[in-house]
Amino acid sequence: MYRFLALFALLILVTATAANHKADASPILKFGSEGQDIPDLQFRLQTIGYYHLPIDKNFGKATLSAVQRFQKNNGLQSDGVVGPKTWAKLKKLSVNKKELSMLARVIYAEARGEDYKGQVAVGAVVMNRLQSSKFPNTVKEVIMEPNAFSAVKDGQYWLIPNQTAFKAAKAAVKGTDPTGNALFYFNPVISKSAWFKTRTATEKIGNHLFTL
Fold first, then answer.
1. Fewer CB within 10 Å, N side or C side of the chain?
2. Pairing of β 208-211 and β 201-205
3. Distance in angstroms (rounded) separating the CA atoms of residues 79 and 71
4. Are the CB atoms for 133 and 185 separated by under 8 Å?
């Protein structure tokens, strides 16, 4: 009886895991494709400056050209087919709508008292972590990683970001990085962590010191 229950539980776990992997898998898209996944692709390409037309559900010539240029500039086969390798690179360098909102939230919560450059800098740190092998693979996981951002821990993350925060988020995603590729930042006036003092400083922007 116990062996049967254990096998049944294992079957449920394997089935659920397979379903999650299937849900997380991005579809292969190419010229002529249509559907709900095209707007996500176009939005991502738009945030990093490759796509400039209104978002729709059709993989047309403009989308094809944007994909090919993205592939060429990132060392991928420039065939215009959005398969696993192109999706993986795209998700490391861009954001979807939900992720852009998350990035704006953390910028607003962590740096709304800073000037625009200081807000872009916080967004750049998130993007630098996204592209680093030392951190999680999605914007959500980077932001929600335990103790990564004090504003998430104390709840300020849930404040509604303003348009400046969204503008700063878009700039950071597009590649603006005034931090010198920093992965961390802190306020040296109020931070009591000795760990930060062991990091290599890259820039001082507003009240934040940025480090590697």
1. N
2. antiparallel
3. 8
4. no
* Within this chain, domains 28-93 and 97-211 share the same CATH topology: no
- Over residues 44-53, the pLDDT tens digits come to 999 999 999 9
- What is the Rg, in whole angstroms, of the alpha carbon atoms belonging to the chain? 20
Closest CA to 123 of 164, 63, 80, 75: 164
Which sequence spans correspond to the domains of the chain?
A: 28-93, 97-211
Q: Write down the H helix ranges in the chain.
A: 2-24, 37-47, 61-73, 84-93, 97-111, 116-131, 139-144, 150-154, 163-173
Beta bridge partners of residue 208, listed in sequence order: 205
Q: Which residues contact 212 (CB under 8 A, 6 or more apart)?
A: 181, 182, 183, 184, 199, 200, 202
Superfamily of segment(s) 97-211: Cell wall hydrolase SleB, domain 1 (1.10.10.2520)
Q: How confident is the model over 24-70, as pLDDT tens digits?
A: 578 999 999 999 999 999 999 999 999 999 999 999 999 999 999 99
Distance between the two ends of the chain, CA-based, in angstroms?
Answer: 55
Containing H/E element for 205?
strand 201-205
Domain 28-93 falls in which CATH fold?
A: Muramoyl-pentapeptide Carboxypeptidase; domain 1 (1.10.101)
Q: Which residue has the tokens 């709840």?
A: 155
Return d(Cα 147, Cα 65) in angstroms, integer. Answer: 41
Instruction: Give the model confidence (pLDDT) of 151-195 as tens digits.
Output: 999 999 999 999 999 999 999 999 999 999 999 999 999 888 889
